[in-house]
Design brief:
Order of helices and strands: EEEHEHEHHHEHEHEEHEHEEHEH
Strand order of the largest sheet: 5-6-7-3-8-9
Number of domains: 2
Structural class: alpha/beta
CATH class of the largest domain: Alpha Beta
Number of strands: 13
CATH architecture of the largest domain: 3-Layer(aba) Sandwich
Shape: globular
Bound molecules: adenosine-5'-triphosphate
Largest sheet: 6 strands, mixed
Number of helices: 11
Distance between the termini: 37 Å
């Protein structure tokens, strides 16, 4: 059991409306000290709205948002967080080193310039004007700004958008280094492999509500699907109608099947095609679990 002092941020029954649109419809969310929480969900689910509420940028219409047990607008709470939002609006003419010094000066116990730059991998960019950097380089600088104040909690809203694979991997290891220091991280992302690689806990949102919450493994277990891949001529549409087959799709010479009963489907596959080869069976990843969860949500809404 966690004590309340382990809770660094919290939304309690939060409702947020924009005119007739209910962006958040009673959201509860708790972030513990030292954990990386990934908030997932399709476009418009309410992820950014939840973060804006925790940052005190907007106010709830119902319920309550708390940062370190305080109102998120209190300066004492804000001094303990770092933020990387989707749009940064930073002065384009300042050099990266100047920006880092400026933002660090808002904090009581900031990292040194060198430490922040090394953590975010921007040491070779310090003399460059921010506006002259590539999109991916600017994202890395924004990450450096988020961590330069030695915050206890960092909000990262889709941090790796526009980054190449190498830059993304580097950011992942920097996030892991932050968490190893005891920093908490709230990460929103559309890259499920990112959540799978980094998160201790995942919250899935859709249409302003929390659909599911738990560890990556627990989320996966909610959708006990396996993935079968093999080289076969069998028709994907026909296979998709087999009992216990959730979906079947062709990928070139391969067939890719999702099923809750892999043994049964395998038996039938091997019987149906004696020349089937290159067989692979894997348990479902977060991507399948997520698709399945949000599909159920859509089906319920359509039925209602
Ligand atoms: N300032 C605003 N005025 C009106 N509607 C808004 C405003 N901000 C958000 N919304 C609406 O609230 C809902 C939730 O938006 P939000 O940005 O939180 O979603 P999200 O999960 O972050 O989506 P994305 O993955 O696209 O970033 C959407 O329907 C959006 O159109």
């Amino acid at each position: 059991m966690h004590t309340s002092s382990d809770v660094v941020a919290r939304l309690c029954g939060v409702v947020k409306r924009y005119g007739h649109l209910t962006a958040l419809d009673g959201v509860d969310l708790v972030l513990q000290r030292g954990e990386l929480l990934a908030v997932l969900g399709p476009n418009g689910a309410g992820k950014s709205t939840s973060i804006s509420l925790l940052l005190g940028l907007i106010r709830p219409d119902g319920g309550r948002a708390e940062l370190f047990g305080m109102d998120p607008q209190q300066i004492d709470a804000r001094r303990r967080i770092g933020v990387m939002l989707q749009s940064a609006m930073l002065p384009l003419t300042l050099r990266v080193g100047e920006l880092l010094r400026l933002v660090a000066s808002y904090y009581p116990n900031p990292r040194t310039l060198e430490e922040s730059a090394a953590l975010a991998g921007v040491t070779d960019l310090l003399q460059r004007p921010y506006g002259k950097l590539s999109g991916g380089q600017q994202r890395r600088v924004q990450f450096a700004l988020a961590l330069c104040g030695r915050p206890e909690l960092v909000f990262l809203d889709e941090p790796t958008v526009g980054m190449d694979i190498d830059a993304r991997r580097k950011l992942w290891s920097a996030m892991r280094a932050l968490v190893a220091e005891g920093c908490s991280v709230v990460l929103t992302t559309h890259y499920l492999e990112e959540a799978e690689a980094l998160a201790q806990r995942v919250v899935v949102m859709a249409k302003g509500r929390v659909l599911s919450e738990g560890s990556v493994d627990a989320l996966r277990a909610q959708v006990p699907l396996a993935r079968i891949r093999c080289v076969t001529d069998l028709d994907a549409t026909a296979v998709s109608t087999w009992p216990q087959v959730t979906s079947a799709e062709r990928e070139g010479v391969r067939l890719r099947i999702s099923t809750g009963a892999p043994e049964n489907v395998l038996r039938r596959l091997l019987e149906a095609d004696a020349s089937l080869c290159e067989l692979e069976v894997q348990r479902a990843g977060l991507a399948e679990a997520f698709t399945e969860l949000t599909r159920e949500e859509n089906a319920e809404q359509e039925a209602a």
